[in-house]
Amino acid sequence: MWGPKNYHDGLTERVDQTTGARYVPVGYVDAMERAYAAADLMLARSGAGTVVEVATVGLPAIMVPLPIGNGEQARNAKPLVDASAAICIDDAELTADRLVSEVTALFAAPGKLAAMSAAAQKLMRPDAAARVAHVVLDAAQAGER
């Protein structure tokens, strides 16, 4: 996915003859759950929403924090990196060669992507909303006494 600009112009769907991987460039996706389900690895910035989505669906990722602000995107990626669920590449260090090297290493290591996926999912608390609701209800009931 490339966003609203025409970065994907000139790219076509193709199959890597070495790995059999399919590449399908698209400009925009309405149903992100489908994109996540089809993906083996994500290359993305590390905004808070993206980081949470990656962890929720257990999608291994290469994060490239946007180098603006106060470094919040790098801090967003840190829990995933610390848990071995993602790799973080500084924007200034991102080159085609570096990206090819990282992706090749991930796909060449048996079980690495599955381990990254499991590590990402361990960061999430699927029952978080229910836990917060219980705390709020307990506090409300305590206030009635």
TrEMBL record:
Broadest EC class assigned to this enzyme: transferase
Domain Glycosyl transferase family 28 C-terminal, first and last residues per copy: 3-131
Keyword Glycosyltransferase: yes
PANTHER family tied to this protein: GLYCOSYLTRANSFERASE, UDP-N-ACETYLGLUCOSAMINE--N-ACETYLMURAMYL-(PENTAPEPTIDE) PYROPHOSPHORYL-UNDECAPRENOL N-ACETYLGLUCOSAMINE TRANSFERASE 1
One GO MF term: hexosyltransferase activity
Entry keywords, A to Z: Glycosyltransferase, Transferase
One Pfam family per UniProt: Glyco_tran_28_C
Full protein name: UDP-N-acetylglucosamine--N-acetylmuramyl-(Pentapeptide) pyrophosphoryl-undecaprenol N-acetylglucosamine transferase
Coiled-coil ranges per UniProt: none
Enzyme Commission number: 2.4.1.227
